[in-house]
Amino acid sequence: MIDQIINYNKTFVEQKGYEKYITDKYPDKKLAVLSCMDTRLTELLPAALGLKNGDAKIIKNAGGLVISAFDSAMRRKK
């Protein structure tokens, strides 16, 4: 399986498949979405929200929970 992934990546880079994903580090819509890290949401969540690459920061963690301002998913500046 790893050989398939490496070969796919080599072709992806050679064909410059990454170019359509180029963006900067700041989300265009100035939006952050907290979500569960369930792999079924990888493509579903942005599609369901009408988001494209670079529109929002998507923060994923187990259960999509933030217990406190100092939790591991998000931190408040002191």
What features would you describe in this structure?
With 78 residues, this protein is an alpha+beta fold. It has one domain. Helices cover 28% and strands 15% of the residues. The chain contains two helices and two strands. It has helices spanning 2-14, 41-49, and strands spanning 31-36, 56-61. It has a two-stranded parallel ribbon with strand order 1-2. Helix 2 links the parallel strand 1 (31-36) and strand 2. The chain starts with a helix and ends in a 17-residue tail after the last strand.
- Shape by Cα distribution: extended
Low-confidence runs: none
**Helix/strand class:** alpha+beta
β-sheet strand percentage: 15-25%
Distance between the termini: 45 Å
Write the layout of secondary structure elements.
Layout (H helix, E strand, L loop, with lengths): L1 H13 L16 E6 L4 H9 L6 E6 L17
Parallel strand pairs: 1-2
Summarize the structure.
This protein has 78 residues and is of the alpha+beta class.
